[in-house]
Amino acid sequence: MAAASATPTPTAPAMGPLGAPPGRDTALDVWRGFALVTIFINHVSGNVLEQFTHKNFGFSDAADLFVMFAGYAAASAYFSKYLGDEKLSTSLKVLSRSVKLYTTHLALVVLGGAVFATMAISKGDLGLFSVMALEPLMLDPPGALVDAVTLRYQPGFLNILPLYCVLIGTLPLLMALAARSMGAAVAASGVLWLAAGLTGANFPSYPIPGGWFFNPLAWQFLFVLGFALGARRNRLGAATTYHRAWWWAALAYLVLGLAAAKLTGFPENGWLAPLPDFLTVPEKQFLSAPRLLHVLALCYVVVHSPLQAWARNLPRLHPLSMMGRHSLPVFCTGLVVSITGVAFKQTGFDGALFDIAYVSAGVGTQVLVAAMMSVTEKRRSSKPPTASLPAAV
């Protein structure tokens, strides 16, 4: 997403993830697919392609995009129905989605642990458990399982689905507040984000200290901002309005992030005392202000650039579009494949050739899963509706 080289198009309406006419947002699917590919590459840690992902060129990374797009998509999928006469049914559907995310996460914990256990046993190297922070499962399996079920214990690579589960689980509350006043919903979310960042409040974690890697009290703000933009798009046909000064200011901030990443290095704690580090240092766990501003600037610049026309005009069956449309199964597939790749790299499989081949095969596997889901989706939509059974049956 080479936002820094984009040229603004002030006469065109904002389209794509942060602005599109009502209907299926193809550009949103494309950018979600982009985020999923990037997350996969980053999860196969240490591979040669990782250095080219956009986390190396600014303060934010694909996780920020993933969460923001999740909020945007949630508004598109649920909020219009909620505002109608389907409040209860929509809320129940959202809660069912959260339960699905929760059970999926637990299945991935077991599967991820099994992958590394297989490698550790075959190589006789129990130290492999430390790569994914799986020591609790080895030292105290019953306790670790209890903590995993309560989401207090989150092995490495498996910490974003718990966040997503909480965000979707609290979506009915967000919709109830937003239905009364979107401004109040965003303001309350912002206050909670600021309070978490300044006080260090977080959900508890055990036995690994420090709280959740993605602090829900902080990351919910990015989700809510995405939700508000998605709701605005549903209402007005465009989520953002082009302002020349804002666009150039956003671009300047991206250039600042690029300079920090490649020239000066990110600022260290205390560099702008007495301001708190939360407001001045890019940090992931609490979604610090520099990081939040960076992902917002990145989205704004891209939305009002020719990249949006490119994404919007891609065919529905483009690999990125299919991946974004079926993000959960694609994401879970990527997690399993990336965890396996990390295990391989820890046991002697290394080098640029292996990295490129494995990442390519992993992305290809995710595209295949997305294509299979798209075929299934098409078959379901082409089936004629079945007659309802008699009420007494």
TrEMBL record:
<feature type="transmembrane region" description="Helical">
    <location>
        <begin position="245"/>
        <end position="266"/>
    </location>
</feature>
<feature type="transmembrane region" description="Helical">
    <location>
        <begin position="157"/>
        <end position="177"/>
    </location>
</feature>
<feature type="transmembrane region" description="Helical">
    <location>
        <begin position="286"/>
        <end position="307"/>
    </location>
</feature>
<keyword id="KW-0812">Transmembrane</keyword>
<protein>
    <submittedName>
        <fullName>OpgC protein</fullName>
    </submittedName>
</protein>
<dbReference type="InterPro" id="IPR014550">
    <property type="entry name" value="UCP028704_OpgC"/>
</dbReference>
<dbReference type="Pfam" id="PF10129">
    <property type="entry name" value="OpgC_C"/>
</dbReference>
<feature type="transmembrane region" description="Helical">
    <location>
        <begin position="101"/>
        <end position="122"/>
    </location>
</feature>
<feature type="transmembrane region" description="Helical">
    <location>
        <begin position="356"/>
        <end position="375"/>
    </location>
</feature>
<feature type="transmembrane region" description="Helical">
    <location>
        <begin position="184"/>
        <end position="206"/>
    </location>
</feature>
<feature type="transmembrane region" description="Helical">
    <location>
        <begin position="328"/>
        <end position="344"/>
    </location>
</feature>
<keyword id="KW-1133">Transmembrane helix</keyword>
<feature type="transmembrane region" description="Helical">
    <location>
        <begin position="62"/>
        <end position="80"/>
    </location>
</feature>
<keyword id="KW-0472">Membrane</keyword>
<feature type="transmembrane region" description="Helical">
    <location>
        <begin position="212"/>
        <end position="233"/>
    </location>
</feature>
